[in-house]
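Methods, example record. To illustrate the input and output format used throughout this study, we show the complete record for Putative lipid kinase. The sequence lines were provided to the predictor; the line carrying structure tokens was produced by it.
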Amino acid sequence: MPFPHGSRWCPGTVVRTLEALHSKPRFPLEPALNAPPRLRHVDEGPAVLVVNTRSRSGRDAFEHARELLAEHGIPLLASHALTRPKRLRKVVEEAIAQGARRVLVGGGDGTISCAAQALMGRDVTLGVVPLGTGNDFARSLGIPDTLEAACDVIAGGYTARVDVGLVNGRPFLNAASLGLTTAIAKRLTQQLKQRAGKLAYPMAAAAEMRTLQPFHVRLQAEGRTLEVDALQLVVGNGRYHGAGNMVAPDATLDDRHFHVYAITAPSMADGGERTGLGHLQDVATLARVALGMRSGGHLEHESVVHLHASRLVVETDPPMEVNADGENVGMTPMRFEVAPAALRVYAPAPQ
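The corresponding predicted structure is encoded as:
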């Protein structure tokens, strides 16, 4: 959508745009397009339930999930309600050592991603119970956002093999980003997410707009080099990031490559911080691009560049923090690789 000539845009415009996007249903009613192939396993062995009770819906969901799984005839070897998310990986690894072959995890994208780090490459199936603010991994799989529906998917027994992204060797499921998205993620405190729910993201965006600054990025991808001044860079393994915004409409969790896009800024050749008109131009660019993020139309915008790659090196000036699935994973430079079909996960039955 072209920027209206003579229109006046400000940070508030971006916030209202994001609020409108996030007021839509959090999950599509139809299954995810081009979903990974599914196989049905009637009984895969002992199951363990692990719920992050600090996730947005975790405290209320733990007991209900146990009841629903029992109703579906899924006996639990053990169940854990974690108030300290840092214990999650250790609990999952101990469950596997004790014979669990199904690890059912309740929480947001950060919780699911942490569990996946312990499960990738193993003969164990991950069951996703989406309880967070964004739930983008569940969205990419087509798993509905109700507890009942998520447990139905697990009971259905259909599984899919999905890729896992690696950033400097650390696994991630949805997307890694730097720039505006990373700054917003730092503001998404547990208290804000509990209080504001799906409006937490636009509220954090509003605060971050005041200090928005472009950065220079150099991408090296399979023999190609691209250099741009950017406001945001996203390296996507799945289809969604940022609570339902698309990385790319044709992205799938099993296509064995990343979908990368950058929102570019006007040249910074003049140097120094961007204030005044330059800052307003950057905000206007984000507002225009945001209009297409829900459908994937942002990739057609003149300020967006995008590419596919199974390996990627990202360098920036100045060094930038990198966020992967809601967690800070360090500073640039970063090396990205795809681990194909590295994780088995429950998914809705094929249509």
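Annotations derived from this record:
Confidence is low (pLDDT under 50) at residues 1-33.
The longest strand covers residues 224-236.
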